[in-house]
Structure formats: structure tokens, C-alpha cells
Design a protein that fits this description.
- It contains 8 helices and 8 strands, in the order ββαβααβαβαβαβαβα.
- By secondary structure, the protein is an alpha/beta fold.
- A 6-stranded parallel β-sheet has the order 5-4-3-6-7-8. It has a two-stranded antiparallel sheet with strand order 1-2.
Length: 216
């Protein structure tokens, strides 16, 4: 940890792995999203490892779910986004995949949130946009947020960039972030690494850092 003018400046994974300062966001690990990935089961297992380690370390945990509105309430951008995802040029053919309480909306059962963990629903890609996440983190004195889930190139990269813009250090657990397009996900990681705002790690490294922090 570097220090200047009485301020701690975290540089490494160990620097941010303080249970009073770090939170985990499990991003959109929903039934209807996981099943779209060829390796959805493998990603789920990695996220489950992260979740187990985070719970053992007693860090705060938040889940996000992507939510669709009924077609009558969807606006221009929601139609535009749905048309892109569903590969149609006719808005009349759009189907809201993630209506609240629909089967695809739920978090996969392997990662069922505990009563002590929050779930925030969102319409946007950044987990911070339109949710209480920033308020919740700041109110608890959180200064770094670890990210795992699906999908890196769609929502996790925007969330990491948004976190950095808010002065919260993003921690990307790369092998616990699934992707619909592997090349695009790799570009996201390379871009975040180049920008230098995020701490990049993997499941093994993250779990080991939490274990070290727990012992100290």
C-alpha cells in the first residue's frame, strides 16, 4: 500500500482485500443468461468458488439481475437493444426475455443469494445505473468492488469503468466472467488493463488473497 498526504493508495490485490473496504458484485448470473453460453456451467462453478470465498471472508455481497419491462413500457433504447440481442429488425417481433418472475429472470440455483445479500434489478448495462448500488457501497465505506458473472463484454466492462469514474477500485476476476463473444471479451480485458484503473486477477488469486486477508 502506498501512502501520500495521509491517504492510502491501493496498488495490489492484497491492498484491496480488506473485508471492511471490499464488496463482491455477482453480475447477472440468471437462468436465462447462463443457458445462452456454451460454457455457462463452467462459469457458474467459478463464480460459486468466488462466492464461497467471499462468504468465508465475510465481505459484503450484491447480486444484479437484468430486467425486461413489458412491451407496453419499453422505450426506444430498450427496443433498440432487444432488437440487437434478438437479431431482428422488426420491433414488433421483440420478446421481453427477462420479465420479473419469469423463469429466465431468476439467479441460477447454484448461486442462491442469502438473506444477508442484496439483489438489485436493472435495465442498463452498468450495475450502478438506476440501482442503489453506489449508495449502498458508499454508505458501508466500500472503496473496491470485485466483479464476476456474465457477460464481460456486455455489462461487466461498463460496470468496471463506471466504478472507476465513481472512485471505486474495480477488481476483475477474469476467469469468473463469462462471455457471449470471446474475442470481444478479450478486447474488454485488454482495454481495462491498458487504462490501468482496474486490478486484474483470476479465481485462484482472488480466493488466495481473501484467505490471506482473513488470517491477518
Amino acid at each position: 500500500m502506498k501512502r501520500v498526504f495521509g491517504i492510502d493508495v491501493p496498488q495490489t490485490l492484497d491492498d484491496v482485500c480488506d473485508r471492511t473496504k471490499l464488496a463482491l458484485v455477482v453480475y447477472d448470473m440468471q437462468v436465462g443468461i447462463v443457458r445462452q453460453l456454451k460454457n455457462g456451467e463452467a462459469v457458474t462453478k467459478q463464480v460459486a468458488r468466488i462466492l464461497e470465498a467471499a462468504r468465508a471472508a465475510q465481505i459484503r455481497i450484491f447480486f444484479t439481475r437484468h430486467m425486461s419491462l413489458p412491451k407496453e413500457l419499453m422505450g426506444a433504447f430498450q427496443y433498440r437493444m432487444a432488437m440487437a440481442w434478438q437479431r431482428t429488425d422488426d420491433p414488433a417481433k421483440v420478446e421481453p426475455w427477462f420479465l420479473r418472475d419469469s423463469p429466465g429472470f431468476a439467479i441460477v440455483p447454484e448461486l442462491t443469494p442469502r438473506p444477508s445479500e442484496a439483489i438489485f434489478d436493472k435495465l442498463a448495462m452498468s450495475a450502478f445505473e438506476g440501482t442503489p448500488l453506489e449508495f449502498a457501497l458508499r454508505d458501508c465505506g466500500i472503496t473496491a468492488v470485485a466483479l464476476a458473472g456474465i457477460a464481460m463484454e456486455i455489462g461487466i466492462e461498463p460496470t468496471a469503468r463506471h466504478a472507476a469514474d465513481l472512485g471505486i477500485v474495480p477488481v476483475l476476476i477474469e476467469d469468473a466472467c463469462g462471455a457471449g463473444h470471446l474475442d470481444a471479451a478479450q478486447r474488454s480485458c485488454e482495454s481495462l488493463r491498458f487504462a490501468g484503473d482496474a486490478i486484474m486477477t483470476d479465481t485462484e488469486g482472488f480466493c488466495a488473497a481473501l484467505a490471506r486477508a482473513k488470517r491477518s
